[in-house]
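Bench notes, afternoon.
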Amino acid sequence: MRGRGVAVKGLRGLIGPRHAGHTVPAAELGALSLPVGDDGVVIGEDSEGRSQLVGFHRSTPYDVLLIGGLWTAQVLALRAAATGSRVVVETGRPHAWVGLAQAAGAGLECITLHDVGRVPPLGATVGSPVVVVRDCGMRPPRGRVVSSPWQSVLTLLPYLSPVAPRLMRAATLVGVQRVSPQEARQTGRILGLAQNEVDALPTLGDGVTLWCAGGERHWVITHATDAESGLLGTARRMD
């Protein structure tokens, strides 16, 4: 293999058939396709059982807002860590996260916890991407934890609050779980939901989320794996 500085001599064996190179007329190139699967964190399945993914590893800032339960946020944190991200949790209730953080890395600090407003610079890079989970209550304060290249931010709101409209408008992806009829109407106005989507929000089962990105809408149910169920229990909207 001369290209690697090593000469291989004395190699004997059958010579295979010789073929001309494969060619395709330029007019037929449009018919070719390369099957490439989606890449990201599996957030659940749609109504037809197809896996739905979110790509947290991005070269551009990416903000996700989840109006829902702690259980779903923790499942997403676990799955993000499993894809190789460093997961940083900014939280005012560390007791709700400490068991998860200890179990996730099998001794490695792949999920770290920080008090609200005390997250240090994280140094996210393409080789060391970061997902920040902000579990800071109904009014997460503005701070230095912002999305940036290779650093995505997932903000958890248990319910709509005065800051929710601003966060919804700023987020690239918004997930909404079961909310009250009044909250559903407010959410519908901000996100431009159809009436049947607004009517469905107060009736959603545990683990079901309506994910919205621009004009796209996806109903997704998150099923825990056996390991996730053992650590977090069954899906629930209330904490």
